[in-house]
């Protein structure tokens, strides 16, 4: 005969006599039982049932037996939660006819008894003898586990949400309204003033207004020059420079002396200790710092379970047999990693130096997986990537470099933008005429090569300190210059040339005029036409010696900036990150268009302080049968905002019929967009709110009270914290990458109606905010953030429609 099984909480199974006592009673939570029966020769008219003591049925009356649900063609299942005071169960299986009132068939043998999740007595098949002496045999599986009250509550909330009819059911994922939606009546509380400027509010100091600043001035500060005593004005002009020596003074309101820092690096038995002794005298103040960096090999030397709420990129796990494993922990509070006792689990000896660990991206998902693969399989120099711009002036190199830098930083890669023009202005001043750039001016060539080498050295030094991607922004228009850079990069980083070619004279003329208006090179030139003539002469000097890229790995962008076609050519490009760069560049362009970001209207869960969920904006969006329940705590403000948003978009985008509306798949965003008519509406699953897992539907006070460890873990590091069975901000960023790519590709305005965490991540991309700041960015309700993308960069404007 067969055996029945009772599955223990650690994933093993057992059956028959001599079962070990499970410590389920002490595991916490409530007992979850799943009963399953399997038979490959099922009779379709007989349905398996269960009856017995509390809490299964509470009656041995076969007419009250509970029906099992079909799980597959051969499997039936019934699951339930056992109250703490009823953990001893007596039950039996029976078969009931489906279509008639014939007597049911009860399994043969004694009652089955389950105590604390453990099956008592002999394990056996369920045997049924029919009237014609035919015997049916079913294999029996009994699975037991402890479930926390929070998991149960989350499951019940999910069940209730799924049971309640959705207010947006029937609305397709993509819809195009041919007529305006249900707008507010004239004179109603939801109408707006005609002048939209009335609703403008100040943007934060860290807003996305890069378009107001010359892009080259926002690049990396040249430390090789500042270390040697050259300082620049805040505008990057470099016309005023100060120098100092040891013990010398720096001119200013408050004199200070800086002594050369002393570095002492030595290894201790259990830690690597770095003493940084800095004597910084400001007035009569002195400061000393000591930095102790623990040795990760020693930190994680214990065997068995590794329980870590730290968020370091790598945590080497030291095994007793000398093998070392790799643990990428991307979520504080996430399920813990249990190290297998098998030596084959960690069979690769990964000697991770400090440079390797520092060069990993701050990311999860595909980015983290690709980075791990590159670290383990790729050559050492490929761990650092140098994107070297190539092209004549006024071809959009600096603009492209700035956008690429912002994108890679947002993905989690440590990226910096090194602009050689900024070095030149600091070293040789900003007032250089076109003669400085002549090909027959040896002094000019030597000076320009010198600052290019300084910038490249700075970039390589930064990479050796943990930087991952350096973007080297200069004309680099000759093979001789590019060969110099490739020689400097040997054994240190991988170079990919990025050449920008533009043959559209209108775009070139526009870029030249922007250059004269914004570049520090012409800040002191009062005559615009004189500056324009000088720059065109400089451009002609470069053009005489320009040599297109034909060597090494390269990407050529030919007439791509307009967004109207063009070509992109790649040569010898491989790997995850270079591939992502190519994909990004294919979809980017300079066409001006606004992107409007806004949260959904206030929902009932916003009022109650509950996170997650899929609630609506107002009471009458619910089915009437729920109107008497306390779950109908709702917000009229959300409904009013939906109407005001419709009025705003109609006024702001009245001439932009190609605009589109993007929402998440959750009801509160779809209903917020319900009054917007005449625009295509697209639902994105990627725009759904950060998933709070078992905490979905709870308040932060409830989490703090019932799950204090999770509450503290989230408070400690909101960026990397992953809700149990949920998501972290890093997870959200990874799923939003297709949204960013599509926003870059769009040529018409887009209105994005989403949620706070998602909009924080999207906004941080446009504002180029550090990843660590994302969880703390303020995205208020009932406010529209307008991001204007165009040739001059990114600009931001905010409209607050209501409190």
Automatic annotation (TrEMBL):
<dbReference type="Pfam" id="PF00300">
    <property type="entry name" value="His_Phos_1"/>
</dbReference>
<dbReference type="InterPro" id="IPR001345">
    <property type="entry name" value="PG/BPGM_mutase_AS"/>
</dbReference>
<keyword id="KW-0547">Nucleotide-binding</keyword>
<dbReference type="GO" id="GO:0006000">
    <property type="term" value="P:fructose metabolic process"/>
</dbReference>
<dbReference type="GO" id="GO:2001070">
    <property type="term" value="F:starch binding"/>
</dbReference>
<dbReference type="InterPro" id="IPR003094">
    <property type="entry name" value="6Pfruct_kin"/>
</dbReference>
<dbReference type="InterPro" id="IPR029033">
    <property type="entry name" value="His_PPase_superfam"/>
</dbReference>
<dbReference type="GO" id="GO:0005524">
    <property type="term" value="F:ATP binding"/>
</dbReference>
<dbReference type="GO" id="GO:0003873">
    <property type="term" value="F:6-phosphofructo-2-kinase activity"/>
</dbReference>
<protein>
    <recommendedName>
        <fullName>CBM20 domain-containing protein</fullName>
    </recommendedName>
</protein>
<feature type="compositionally biased region" description="Polar residues">
    <location>
        <begin position="1"/>
        <end position="10"/>
    </location>
</feature>
<dbReference type="Pfam" id="PF00686">
    <property type="entry name" value="CBM_20"/>
</dbReference>
<dbReference type="Pfam" id="PF01591">
    <property type="entry name" value="6PF2K"/>
</dbReference>
<dbReference type="InterPro" id="IPR013078">
    <property type="entry name" value="His_Pase_superF_clade-1"/>
</dbReference>
<feature type="region of interest" description="Disordered">
    <location>
        <begin position="1"/>
        <end position="23"/>
    </location>
</feature>
<dbReference type="GO" id="GO:0006003">
    <property type="term" value="P:fructose 2,6-bisphosphate metabolic process"/>
</dbReference>
<dbReference type="InterPro" id="IPR013079">
    <property type="entry name" value="6Phosfructo_kin"/>
</dbReference>
<keyword id="KW-0067">ATP-binding</keyword>
<dbReference type="InterPro" id="IPR013783">
    <property type="entry name" value="Ig-like_fold"/>
</dbReference>
<dbReference type="InterPro" id="IPR013784">
    <property type="entry name" value="Carb-bd-like_fold"/>
</dbReference>
<dbReference type="InterPro" id="IPR027417">
    <property type="entry name" value="P-loop_NTPase"/>
</dbReference>
<dbReference type="GO" id="GO:0005829">
    <property type="term" value="C:cytosol"/>
</dbReference>
<feature type="domain" description="CBM20">
    <location>
        <begin position="25"/>
        <end position="132"/>
    </location>
</feature>
<dbReference type="GO" id="GO:0004331">
    <property type="term" value="F:fructose-2,6-bisphosphate 2-phosphatase activity"/>
</dbReference>
<dbReference type="InterPro" id="IPR002044">
    <property type="entry name" value="CBM20"/>
</dbReference>
């Amino acid at each position: 005969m067969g055996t029945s099984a009772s599955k223990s909480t650690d994933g093993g199974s057992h059956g028959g006599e001599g079962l070990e006592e499970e410590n389920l009673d002490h595991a916490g939570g409530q007992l979850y039982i799943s009963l399953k029966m399997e038979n490959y020769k099922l009779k379709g008219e007989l349905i398996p049932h269960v009856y017995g003591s509390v809490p299964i049925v509470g009656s041995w009356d076969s007419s009250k037996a509970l029906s099992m649900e079909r799980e597959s063609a051969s499997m039936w299942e019934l699951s339930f939660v056992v109250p703490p005071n009823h953990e001893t169960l007596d039950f039996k299986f029976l078969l009931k006819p489906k279509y008639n009132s014939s007597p049911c068939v009860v399994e043969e043998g004694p009652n089955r008894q389950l105590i604390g999740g453990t099956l008592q007595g002999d394990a056996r098949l369920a045997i049924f003898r029919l009237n014609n002496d035919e015997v049916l045999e079913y294999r029996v599986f009994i699975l037991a586990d402890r479930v926390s009250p929070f998991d149960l509550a989350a499951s019940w909330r999910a069940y209730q949400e799924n049971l309640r009819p959705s207010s947006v059911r029937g609305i397709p994922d993509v819809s195009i309204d041919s007529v305006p939606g249900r707008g507010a009546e004239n004179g109603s509380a939801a109408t707006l003033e005609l002048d939209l400027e009335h609703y403008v509010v100040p943007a934060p100091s860290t807003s996305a207004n890069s378009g107001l600043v010359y892009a080259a001035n926002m690049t990396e500060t040249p430390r090789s020059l500042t270390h040697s005593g050259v300082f620049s004005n805040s505008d990057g002009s470099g016309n005023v420079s100060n120098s100092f020596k040891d013990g010398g003074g720096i001119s200013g309101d408050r004199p200070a002396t800086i002594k050369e820092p002393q570095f002492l690096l030595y290894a201790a038995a259990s830690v690597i200790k770095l003493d940084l002794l800095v004597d910084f005298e400001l007035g009569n103040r002195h400061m000393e710092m000591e930095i102790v960096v623990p040795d990760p090999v020693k930190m994680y030397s214990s065997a068995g379970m590794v329980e870590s709420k730290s968020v370091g990129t790598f945590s080497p796990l030291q095994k007793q047999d000398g093998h070392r494993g790799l643990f990428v922990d991307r979520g504080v509070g996430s399920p813990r990693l249990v190290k297998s006792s098998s030596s084959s689990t960690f069979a690769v000896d990964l000697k991770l130096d400090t440079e390797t660990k520092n060069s990993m991206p701050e990311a999860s998902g595909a980015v983290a997986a690709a980075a791990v693969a590159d670290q383990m399989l790729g050559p050492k120099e490929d761990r650092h990537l140098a994107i070297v711009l190539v092209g004549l002036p006024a071809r959009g190199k600096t603009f492209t470099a700035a956008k690429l830098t912002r994108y890679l930083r947002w993905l989690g890669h440590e990226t910096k933008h090194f602009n050689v023009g900024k070095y030149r202005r600091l070293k040789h001043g900003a007032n250089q005429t076109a003669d400085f750039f002549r090909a027959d001016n040896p002094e000019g060539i030597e000076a320009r090569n010198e600052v290019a080498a300084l910038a490249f050295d700075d970039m390589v030094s930064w990479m050796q300190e943990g930087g991952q991607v350096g973007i080297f922004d200069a004309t680099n228009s000759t093979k001789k210059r590019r060969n110099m850079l490739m020689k400097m990069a040997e054994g240190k980083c991988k170079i990919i040339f990025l050449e920008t070619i533009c043959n559209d004279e209108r775009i070139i003329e526009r870029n030249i005029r922007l250059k004269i208006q914004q570049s520090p090179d012409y800040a002191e030139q009062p005559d615009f036409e004189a500056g324009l003539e000088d720059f065109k002469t400089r451009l002609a000097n470069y053009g005489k010696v320009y040599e297109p890229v034909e060597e090494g790995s390269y990407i050529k962008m030919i007439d791509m900036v307009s967004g109207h076609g063009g070509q992109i050519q790649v040569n010898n490009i491989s790997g995850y990150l270079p591939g992502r760069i190519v994909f990004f560049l294919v979809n980017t362009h300079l066409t001006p268009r606004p992107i409007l970001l806004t949260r959904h209207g206030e929902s009932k869960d916003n009022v109650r302080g509950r996170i997650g969920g899929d609630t609506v904006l107002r009471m009458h969006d619910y089915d009437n049968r729920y109107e008497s329940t306390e779950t109908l705590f709702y917000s009229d403000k959300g409904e009013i905002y939906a109407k005001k948003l419709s009025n705003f978009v109609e006024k702001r985008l009245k001439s932009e019929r190609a605009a589109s509306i993007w929402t998440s798949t959750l009801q509160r965003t779809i209903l917020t967009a319900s009054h917007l008519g005449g625009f295509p509406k697209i639902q994105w699953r990627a725009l759904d709110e950060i998933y709070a897992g078992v905490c979905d539907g709870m308040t932060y006070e409830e989490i703090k009270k019932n799950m204090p460890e999770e509450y503290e873990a989230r408070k400690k590091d909101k960026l990397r914290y992953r809700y149990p069975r949920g998501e972290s901000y890093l997870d959200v960023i990874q799923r939003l990458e297709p949204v960013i790519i599509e926003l870059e590709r769009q040529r018409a305005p887009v209105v994005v109606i989403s949620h706070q965490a998602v909009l924080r991540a999207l906004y941080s991309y446009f504002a180029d905010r550090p990843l660590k700041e994302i969880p703390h960015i303020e995205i208020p309700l009932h406010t529209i953030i307008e991001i204007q993308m165009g040739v001059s960069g990114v600009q931001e404007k905010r409209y607050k429609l209501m409190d």
